[in-house]
Amino acid sequence: xxxxxxxxxxxTLEMLVLRTLAHEPMHGWGIAHRIESMSGRVFLVSQGSLxxxxxxxxxxxxxASEWRTTENNRRARYYGLxxxxxxxxxxxxxxxLRASTAINAILNAHWALGET
Amino acid sequence: xxxxxxxxxRFRALWHRRRDEEELAEELRFxxxxxxxxxxxxxxxxxxxxxxxxxxxxxxxxxxxxxRDARGTRLxxxxxxxxxxxxxxLARNPGFAAVVILTLALGIGGTTAVFSAxxxxxxxxxxxxxxxxxxxxxxxxxxxxxxRGFSSPVQFGAYREQLPSLESVAxxxxxxxxxxxxxxxxxxxxxxxxxxSANYLAVLRARPEIGRGFQPEDENGSGIEDNVDAxxxxxxxxxxxxxxxxxxxxxxxxxxVMNGVAYTVTGVMPDGFRDPVAGAVDAxxxxxxxxxRDPSEAGNHYLTVxxxxxxxxSLARAQAELDGLSLRLAEQYPSIKExxxxxxxxxxxxxxxxxxxxxxxxxxxxxxxxxxxxxIANLMLVRGSERSREFALRTALGAGRTRIVRQLLVESLTxxxxxxxxxxLVARLAMAAIVVLGSGTIPRLASLxxxxxxxxxxxxxxxxxxxxxxxTPAIRAARTQPGDALRDxxxxxxxxxxxxxxxxWLVAWQVALAVILLVGAGLxxxxxxxxxxVALGVKADHVLTFELNLPSARYDSxxxxxxxxxxxxxxxxxxxxxxxxxxxxxxATGAYHQWGVAAISGPLAxxxxxxxxxxxxxxxxxxxxxxxGIPVLAGRTxxxxxxxxxxxxxxxxxxxxxxxxxxxxxxxxxxxTGGRDSEIIxxxxxxxxxxxxxxxTYVYHAHRQFAGDRNWALMQVVATTGxxxxxxxxxxxxxxxxxxxLVMFHPVPLDEAIGQGAAQRVFTMRIxxxxxxxxxxxxxxxxxxxxxxxxxxxxREFGIRMALGAERADIGRMxxxxxxAVAAAGIAIGVCTALxxxxxxxxxxxxVSPLDPRVLLGAIAxxxxxxxxxxxxxxxxxxxxxxxxxxxxx
Lengths: 116, 890
What we know:
The structure holds 2 protein chains of 2 kinds.
Chain A: H1 10-21, E1 26-27, H2 28-38, H3 47-59, E2 63-69, E3 75-81, H4 83-108
Antiparallel strand pairs in A: 1-3, 2-3
Chain B: H1 3-15, H2 17-41, H3 46-57, H4 60-71, H5 74-92, H6 94-123, E1 134-141, H7 153-162, E2 166-172, E3 179-182, E4 189-196, H8 200-204, E5 210-211, E6 233-236, H9 238-245, E7 255-258, E8 261-268, E9 283-286, E10 304-309, H10 315-332, E11 339-345, H11 346-386, H12 388-396, H13 401-438, H14 452-479, H15 482-490, H16 497-533, E12 543-547, H17 557-572, E13 577-583, E14 594-599, E15 612-622, H18 624-627, E16 632-635, E17 649-653, H19 654-660, E18 670-673, E19 676-684, E20 698-702, H20 703-706, E21 715-720, H21 728-738, E22 745-749, H22 750-755, H23 759-793, H24 795-803, H25 808-838, H26 853-879, H27 883-888
Parallel strand pairs in B: 4-9, 6-8, 15-20, 17-19
Antiparallel strand pairs in B: 1-10, 1-11, 2-10, 3-4, 5-8, 6-9, 7-8, 12-21, 12-22, 13-15, 13-21, 14-15, 14-18, 16-19, 17-20, 18-19
Helix pairs in contact in B: 2-3, 5-13, 6-11, 6-13, 6-14, 7-10, 11-14, 11-16, 11-23, 12-14, 12-15, 13-14, 16-23, 16-25, 16-26, 23-24, 23-25, 23-26, 25-26
């Protein structure tokens, strides 16, 4: 599923997870669902990459997790940002903006369109 | 994110692995449920929704694997898993594990302990400055240059002054153990005192810790207890200084009463200083060398001579000088005209007698280590091929080959480590055993300690062996196609035979090594049995001996003569005592007082050639001959009447009587020895000089008549009807009644005192026997293991054979034949290898040829018997195979 065009680069996935969690702690499915819907289902988050990413980010101290009860009374693991996670989001967001601005500038330049 | 928190998190994950796994499962379940609920709310059927969500997840296990990777604990986790798996595996096969661990333990432990002993005794240099320059000088004769005798004071005086290649030459009186009583009253104790020449410390390049050594003028005899007018000096050992003078730093100049004589302490030697020849002593006194210029003392040999070679001189040059000097002395003193002298490096001399024994032990240990390696190799290979099916199956199921190799490595290492631990334990025990068994017979053994480098070496060899042979099957398994391996095991009925051939050769070599050790141990056993049977001329059992010194300060020669007789009578009166007496040197414990004896009556009187011989001179008191069980062949022994007032009388041995008075009755004849003319009053049986039964001629003097010659400090010999040691308290009481200040020094049964010299052979024999037993067990185990394995491999083949009409007995014979063929090959190799090797043992053998056919046949028969038993068991199992069941096995 979503392997070819919808697969996210690892770094990008982590940035999106950070962004998704900036508002409130969420469980794994919630994160995947939120990213998919926010991207207009352009990005499909595979569980095979989401859960390892969550473990890695937790290991790096960007996320903290706790078990909570959902609205329909089931136990689920909720992930939330730590202070380090918030900093990381700022760093990645500004990095992304700089990079995407630069890429846009290149893509929109006239000579790059192959016009003579 | 820091490295520390990252590592911390990884370890946390490791510890909480199980909880993490459960939580992950729950989390993924929740995810699927949530996904399904989403689909259901979108109007999809419940079952379809569940399927879709499963598909979306893309395989729970794969996700789990990816998460486990992300945890970063995989390597550790798998290693732990391998270890657990290895332990489980070994626990399932406790026999295999036990055999490997035991084999490794014996290999590591035995090798290390014996290597350490050899290192301490053989390889460690003498603890003196430039020890390579130290030499020992032995008196020899024209006829026997290899004889190692003592030197006379006249010879020593010449050696000291006329050998330019030797920078200094010192004399030590090791001739007899000189004891001295220290203290007074109840606190009296006996110590070991070593008289030395004044330049003793200069030769050894040793300096006292405090004070000074001896001066040349101390050699004038002031240290001799009878010479009470001079001021005698004494040099103390560190230990004695600590014990007796409580380490008093002002000890120099203090007075120490020894044998009732006041000595002035001149110095204290540093801790650890020992005499190179006599070993640990308590004190040193100056040697009386006032006789060094007395020509009549030229033939009186009692000095041990050591020297220090000049750095620019060779041993050969010194020997040439010594040869010249011996000739000059021979001209000057007719009594020593046949005497020569030889120089030997001191180290070679000290360890020489033990070195061959130790070398043999070293060889035995090497063989055992080799055997251990072969055994481990065999065990590992057998086990590896047993499991090749398992490896093939796991490879087929997708296990990485490196993963399998790694797992086997962990398994081998686990085994090797367990073996190493057990090996350390065995090493410790073996060391203790060696020290106990060899103490007193192997010089410097007391300083034995485990050599860490040797331990490391043995560990490396054993572990390396286990790992290499543990991995070989895995690597082979990794190379073969799993399909082939599986097919080979299940379909082919005679599979794995090529690897079996390799193992059979290994077993043959094991048998060969065991045969070599058996032959070596057998030869020593035969020597020992021969020695036990040697006729010594005395009855050594049920006899207690001890040294009794009568201090010259309290006992003059008349009192001594009287007291030794008195105590002999008192001891003989004790219940259970058959007879008691004294002698200047215990029988069969070595040569001593070898004096010239000349017949002055009878057919050879005046015959310079045949009428003069060297004989062992002994001084006896009480009923010595009766106590030692020496038969009186003619005439009588000494009685009360043979005292100082009577003419000098002697008793001679049978061989002396025959040599000096051929064809006549020796009783009543006269001879000259010890500076006196004496009449022979009796002839007694011959007595061996040493415990190997070497015979010599003897002249016995009556102590009553000879007490004035010197203070004899006679060895007391008490024969009893009961146990010799049980007699000790009664003797002690009787002694205390006679004189409470006397010391019963070194009480020991006579057979033990005589056995001392054989102890080294016993020690070597015990170690070799142990090794041979271990080798035998290992090779039997190897043969049994390989045959059992081959029976297991060929179960199907045997089943088919039986189904086709083969007799059960035929099958059994087939297996037995195979086993015996392997054993026979091994025995043949072993005998061929042992034959040249045993020649190296010649010096430790006694009246046994290194090619003794009985020992060889015995070793072959013994090995064959053990091999037959080891082969019979698997053969019996083969006959018990049920043909139907065997074909259903796979």
